[in-house]
Every structure is written in structure tokens, then in C-alpha cells.
């Protein structure tokens, strides 16, 4: 009797997980649509605006880059605040967000 109940519970769980699966549309993953218009967007050109979603293991505690001490805060703040200069492989300052600079 216990095996029958266990088999029914497992069958029910598998059926419910299968019902929540993705559609069988092959183009579903490749299609990109605009959020407000519903039109297809060409993947080769950048699209301005919209939303950028990136998963983190923890919630960022602070978005102030100088005060962030945890990895999630630093990762999120680095996407928001960009340095105008960066170091290249020869440890020389080169423009990153800036077009040019003078020393």
C-alpha cells in the first residue's frame, strides 16, 4: 500500500512539473520583442533603454561603491558607476568611459 501511495505522489509531482515546463516553440528562445510595442528587434543592433537583469547570490546591501564591502554590492555598483580611466596590460592609464584625458 505504501508503494502505491508513493508511486501516486511521485507521478503527481512529475506531472505538475511537466505542466510548468516551457513551450515547444523552437523560435521562442531566439525571439526578442520590444517591451512596449511587441515588435521583433534585430539582434545585431544595440537597443537603448529597457531593463538589465543579472542574478546575484545575495541582495546588495549598498549601491555606494566606496562603501560597498560585500561582493553583491560591489558587482551591482560596478554596473552603475563606471570609472573614466582604467589601466591597460602595461599598467598605463587609458580612457575607459572618457573620450580622452590630459595629465
Broad structural category: mainly alpha
Shape: elongated
Q: How many helices in DSSP terms? A: 2
> Can you write the helix and strand succession as a string?
HHEE
Placed side by side, the strands forming the largest sheet appear as: 1-2
Beta-strand share of residues = 5-15%
Oligomeric state of shown chains: single chain
- Average pLDDT confidence is 77
Radius of gyration, CA atoms, in whole angstroms: 24 Å
Written account of the structure:
The protein is mostly helical and 103 residues long. It has a domain at 61-103. The chain contains two helices and two strands. The protein has a two-stranded antiparallel sheet with strand order 1-2. Strand 1 (85-87) and strand 2 form a beta hairpin. The longest helix has 18 residues, at 2-19. The relative contact order is 0.07.
Key structural traits:
single chain; mainly alpha
What is the fold's blueprint, element by element?
Elements: H1 2-19, H2 71-80, E1 85-87, E2 93-95
Antiparallel strand pairs: 1-2
Short summary:
With 103 residues, the protein is mainly alpha-helical.
Amino acid at each position: 500500500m505504501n508503494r502505491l501511495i508513493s508511486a501516486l505522489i511521485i507521478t503527481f509531482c512529475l506531472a505538475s512539473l511537466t505542466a510548468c515546463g516551457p513551450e515547444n516553440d523552437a523560435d521562442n528562445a531566439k525571439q526578442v520583442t520590444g517591451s512596449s510595442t511587441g515588435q521583433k528587434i534585430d539582434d545585431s543592433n544595440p537597443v537603448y533603454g529597457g531593463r538589465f537583469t543579472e542574478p546575484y547570490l545575495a541582495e546588495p546591501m549598498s549601491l555606494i561603491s566606496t562603501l560597498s564591502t560585500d561582493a553583491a554590492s560591489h558587482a551591482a555598483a560596478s554596473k552603475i558607476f563606471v570609472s573614466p580611466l582604467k589601466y591597460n596590460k602595461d599598467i598605463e592609464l587609458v580612457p575607459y568611459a572618457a573620450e580622452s584625458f590630459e595629465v
